[in-house]
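Observation: inputs received (chain + fe (ii) ion).
Thought: call the complex predictor directly.
Action: predict_structure
Action Input:
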Amino acid sequence: MKINASLQSLFCAVVLGVNQSNGFLASVSIVRRQMITLNAHGPQENGGVFGFQDRPLLKKFGQDIHRRVMDSAQGRHRKGKIGAYTSKEIIPRLDMQCSTAAYGLNDLSIASRQEIREAFSESENTFNSRLHGRSSGSGCVIIRLQGEDAVAMHKLVNYADRFFDQVDSIEGKEVADVGVFRVANHVYVGFDENVNDGKMQFLDTRIFSGTEGGGHNAMLLPIELQKLMGSASMNDAHNGMNTLFDIGSQITSAVLRMPSKSANKLIDDGTSVDDTTRVLANKVSNSYHRLIRYLKPDENATGAAFEPHVDSSFLTMIPMPKLPGLEIWCPSRSTTDDGSREWGEWVQPTLQADEQLNDGNAYIIVMAGHFLELTSDGKVPTCIHRVIPPSNKNTGMYQPRISGPLFLRPRIGEDALLDVDNDLKLESDKSSTEPMTNGLYHEKGLLDECDKMHLWSAHDVIKS
Ligand SMILES: O=C(O)CCC(=O)C(=O)O
Ligand SMILES: [Fe+2]
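Observation:
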């Protein structure tokens, strides 16, 4: 990635010039940090540009997810047992590689589109139950990368560590002072050093696709990062994000059987689809990368550092952090004698016995967001997850947990309209033995209601 001086000054001009009333800036407003904080569930705003408040099934979809999150928060365990499920038993694992990778995994070990679909889909009573053991499926899968893809992931993880080292240094003060900028509705970048009453710190980074579309002109925002981290580090960060974007786009289009034209239209992979647009918001990715540092919990703190929630993404992809803490809700697939569902279990996604974080491979925790549940017509459950702080009884050397999720989201541009017949389930897989079931979370009529809708606008309805 080359960041040229004129591009930087263009962005600075845009930032500084928001109050001017020329057309280029008309749809952009950028607000300084004093007025905005990033909260643990993402920045909240009322209303939205697109306002589809009259979609009852979509609203119900959001309420159902909310109810599942509340149920999980009570943390009821299967048959009252704690730790009855293990990651190995119920969180599926796949080998993948970037579509551009030059290293060769043999075809047999790379997951097929059908295997990807199976791993993410729930399995109440279908043939893929072997993948989820006693769970009906959590929407979480661990992906293993090798070769150059693994190197790109390790560099992204090192970048995260270096960023927080820099924040703690004198120079880091500058980034802390930059704070959070609003670029457009739900579009923020910047550093918040005090999220959720000091429980954690967030750096949200987005890709500005540059004046000539994506590719070589793209740069990461906030631009102050460049000065703090240096261009080699920013290159590593951008490369790592591109690896995640590539894997995430492959997974999303496999799960939804999307043709590549639709994937390009709907999935924001950090590139711009419209080189000619003069609307700044369309040049800043809706997908974003977040660095999180969990701070030492209060002596008296109880409960989760990050409460149970789902993400507003197609997929959230986290290079396996060095320290544990993330827990996945794995609903049970069995029912009790009276026919009611047993609840489930919180499970930490872990490596298998013969794997280590430094074995040369890279491991990514991939979680389905609510957009994947929506567009898969309820076949893929959105992954409910939480983060448990390190035990505060352990008063020895405190090591803050660092995590770096990438949120792969729908595009925000007005062309990103969902065309159900043409975008979803088009790819006919004649040889497939997959039964066409509706899935546990299917809601009759929901996708019809969302046909021809600007997909990202569902965010407002689901959250409301
Ligand atoms: O810290 C983690 O690993 C997960 C963070 C998370 O769930 C989020 O940022 O939405
Ligand atoms: Fe999350």
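Thought: report the result.
Final Answer: The pocket of fe (ii) ion (ligand 2) is lined by residues 309, 311, 316, 385 (CB under 6 Å). The first strand starts at residue 93 and ends at 95.
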